[in-house]
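Example record used in the benchmark description.
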Amino acid sequence: MDKTNKILFKSSTKNLHLLRKFIEDKARTFGFDESSVNQIILSVDEACTNIIKHAHMYNDKEIIEVELNTNENQFIIKLNYKGKAFDPNNISNPDMKEYFNKFKIGGLGVPIMKKFMNKIEFLHLNPDKNSLTLIKNL
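Model output (structure tokens):
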């Protein structure tokens, strides 16, 4: 049987701890091991940080809706938000040797999501409504 849970939170990095706790509890209950739980939390955290920073420009009046669905073997996190569209599938992974040689900071959120999640889907629904879905198989 499918189960759906939804939370809304103000678009601020100050609220990410609420999201992490929500995802952690649900992922554990679903049956993921410690490593997978941490991978999911990190991926969702990175995705929301990108939304807060790039789509909402740190405007904490904006809202991110987190919708969690599960089926027999998939943990599906859908992030619905307004603002600038950003499809992580269009970003190529950086050359890590060059990245570290230049002492870069940041920019690894998308490669982390791609590595830890089984599938990432992005939908641009209308001029300013977007949906980013992260899927992890059990």
